[in-house]
Amino acid sequence: MEFGSDEEAAAFVPPPELVEVTHDRRFTGGTLVRATSDEVHAWRRELMPPS
Description:
Layout: H1 6-11, H2 29-34, H3 37-47
């Protein structure tokens, strides 16, 4: 995410469904572009199990 100022960034409260994937290799450009819809949905379920 990008913010217009440091204050906006500091005030941001992420929603519970927001998951950090920066260091998850599955979500890098090359892997993500070749992934099937079923694979992406499976990854999402791994990261966000039902509550």
